[in-house]
Amino acid sequence: MKYTYREMPENLKGTYADISRNWGFCWKESVMSVPSPLFLVTTYKSNGLPNASMQSWSTFTCANRGSGYYALLGSVNKNGHLYRTLQETKEAVINFMSAEAHAACMATIRNNEFDKDEITASGLTTEKADWVNAPMVKECFMNLECRYVWEKEIVPGDDHVVICLEVLGGHIDEEHLADRIGDNGLLYNIHYQMNPENVGKTAHDYAAVLQRKVDVGEY
Ligand SMILES: Cc1cc2nc3c(=O)[nH]c(=O)nc-3n(C[C@H](O)[C@H](O)[C@H](O)COP(=O)(O)O)c2cc1C
User: How far does the centroid of ligand 1 lie from the alpha carbon of residue 184, in Å?
Assistant: First the structure.
């Protein structure tokens, strides 16, 4: 049996799924719960200090008939520093953290001030990128150096945009070369999953690793 949802279920009224609309979230996300990778995007601000911005709701794809690899940042706030710095420098690094570095990366949100080096202030270390004018985070096991390509609003007039970045190249920690998606690998953002038929238990956001790989055979 399948439950069917198109309008917001009565049960969800007044819950996080309902009121989070005030912060730009739709109840369907809490019910449909599609995870997306979580990463830290680093850039330079116009004062020369490193900016760090946690991002999710994104995906990665090949394009240009296989000659390029691209990040589609699915929901970048136009009022944030990441958006501003990307307009200015057109370059960024996407840093993937394992669970170990998650807390420090999250601390960049508390340190989100224009006059702060957000990487150092969060207990992380800056490394110099090879090909772009943007800082890299040493504690993140994979750093992708990227160049801005284009942006577009999903709905005209929205305050968030999809931004396409071309991945020029990357750096991968030797301990992660064999596997980047296991327990010690990249994290996924799952935004407030709720059971619309039983909302008694309060849900929360969490970062998760891929818990189990299911073998569906070769193809
Ligand atoms: C798990 C998680 C995921 C986030 N994903 C996004 C995102 O996809 N887009 C966005 O604009 N902000 C996102 N944020 C919020 C920003 O990280 C936060 O507002 C940050 O301070 C913005 O930094 P900035 O001003 O340097 O861009 C996320 C926050 C968390 C905790």
Answer: 23
